[in-house]
Write a structure and sequence with these properties.
Strand content: 25-35%
Largest sheet: 6 strands, mixed
Distance between the termini: 40 Å
Low-confidence stretches: none
Structural class: alpha+beta
Number of helices: 6
Mean pLDDT: 92
Length: about 270
Amino acid sequence: MTATALLPPERPAEAVTGLLLDAVHAAGQRLLATWPGAGGRPAAATKPDGSVVTDADLASEAILTAAIRTVAPGAHIAAEENPASHHCPGPDTMVWFLDPLDGTRLYLNGSADFAILLSAWHAGRALLSIASFPAAGIVAAARNGTVSFTPSGPPPARLPVHTCYCDPPGLPGVIPADLSHLVDAYESTRALVDVARGHAAGAVALMCGHRTWDIAAPAHLITTAGGTVTDEHGAPLHLTGCDVTARYLVAATTRTLHRRLLAALPQELNPCS
């Protein structure tokens, strides 16, 4: 199934992507309007699970949900801030995974390391994904086997391998000398998207509290760009519900580096602290 199957035939895939990109831009502008990094003051509350939600999360989710409903009426939208949507609708159902503000605590702290993520999957396969970092001005989109990045500037002279929320002791020994090693330089979303856009050679991220809307879009971007992303066993991601079964995500631009990163993971995978 291709991205064109998301819509009635009279709506081409380009129109779908354009409409969703417009909505992502509008949601990003809403986030920036109250972003503390630019002097904003969003209202925030603590959810039952102890995480934080802001009025910006909710406003962004409303904008994006409305856009998805326009292009895919009746679709199941698994949106982070809508607990009623977190059930698994069945393996053959089209699911849109939506994170209207990935990195809420960073957003509240004024960091630019926050994102908007949306991704459509059918029967465990990705069809269309968008990742946007409004404060950094980065937008990435994948559909029908093609991927685009804005801006498309040159990568750093020495590509990093990122580790996020972990630092496997065996990792430095498997990273080639021409690459650098950065620990928690970014949240996992930015690290993974940088692998997709060729601004990082690889990334290893420990899954601690991650849900599918956190990883669906970055994973699709990486594979569409020609990279590899798997769980800690080397198995490709097959996303149908909201729960993430992987303990680690391992991503790389080459299969050789991916194999090295997999081999560097600890044999006993400790639970998140």
